[in-house]
Every structure is written in structure tokens, then in C-alpha cells.
Amino acid sequence: xxxxxxxxxxxxxxxxxxxxxxxxxxxxxxxxxxxxxxxxxxxxxxxxxxxxxxxxxxxxxxxxxxxxxxxxxxxxxxxxxxxxxxxxxxxxxxxxxxxxxxxxxxxxxxxxxxxxxxxxxxxxxxxxxxxxxxxxxxxxxxxxxxxxxxxxxxxxxxxxxxxxxxxxxxxxxxxxxxxxxxxxxxxxxxxxxxxxxxxxxxxxxxxxxxxxxxxxxxxxxxxxxxxxxxxxxxx
Length: 235
Description:
Largest sheet: 2 strands, antiparallel
Distance between the termini: 91 Å
Structural class: mainly alpha
């Protein structure tokens, strides 16, 4: 049985449905409803138990409870059923379940983002320490802030890749997939820390859509229109 924290009590509906009740009957009815809500199940079949729940000890009070049960409840094999309360409980259970699922999704997403950021920071620090022992023939130091031109470049060069071909490779995939896509893929590689960084990066990008390329031949060529005779006369 799931725990529902609060009872949505619709005062207008309640007052409309109970306009003919006395103060004593209101008291007995509310006690029965509150017990129903707290247990999230029909009231017991035995009226003796219902009397105890409704705090009915005298014959007169028990008669009032009998009238309440007859007017607002239906006796089933599971106990005295209140149809409106049954609907409210089912609705609240559904909302509660949805909230829990959404909460877990949000929590997982935040945890992943936090872990990703932490791992990136740690990886960057480690790679920064390693960079002093890596030789770069071009003389260009890797970026200290950009994951692609910093972490990815250092990692691949430290794994034996040629610096020039690595820079060419990184520039090419940025042109093909876009900087944001490549940066995300590099971040995933940093988290996984594969033995073959380049191959793993290529595997991730293989399933990503490429940017639409515009043919260079189609750029800069505009149609030439020759002036008509009438247009020449205006010159």
C-alpha cells in the first residue's frame, strides 16, 4: 500500500452531497471517510467495526452510522465501498507514481551531469600534468579550456597519434558534425577513458548526423543579365 500524504477535500462537493445531514451525522461520516483514506481501502464489512471507527457507542449513534453507511456506501465482498473516495484514491496514487518517476528521472539526469562535469575536470587536470612530458612538433600548446583542442588532442598524441594528423582529424570531424556534437562526444570519451581514444570517438560520431555541406562551386556565382535595348537607353 502506497502512502498518500494529503486528502484532496472538495468542500463544495461535500456540502452539496451532505446538505441533509445533522451535526452528529457529519461527525460520524467524516470519521468513516478519514479512516477510509488512511487505509486506502473499503471500510470493514462488519458494522461492529464501523461503529468503533465512527465512535458510535450508543444505540442512537449506531443507528446514525447505519444510515450513513446505507446512504453513502455500498457493501461489497471487500467491505463498504465509497465510490467517490475510491476515485480520489486512485487518482492520487497515479499522480504520486508519476511524480516519483519524474523525480527519479530528474535525479538521474542531475547525477549524470554532475559526474560528467567532475570527470571532465579531473581528466583535464590529469592531462594538464601529462602535457609537460608530451612533445608537440608544431610548437602549439593544447588548449587549456577547450575539450577538443585540449583533452582530445593531448590524449590522442599521448597514445601515439601524430600531432599534425590528429589536428587535421579533429578539424575535419568538427566540420562534418559541428563543434557541439564533437565536444559532447569527446566528453563521453573522457568519461569512458578508452585505450584507443580516436577509435572510440569515431564510433560515437558514427551514429551522429552530419552537417549539411554546401558545395563550394555553388557559392559566389551569380547569373549575369545583359541590359536590353530599352535599358541601354537609360544609361
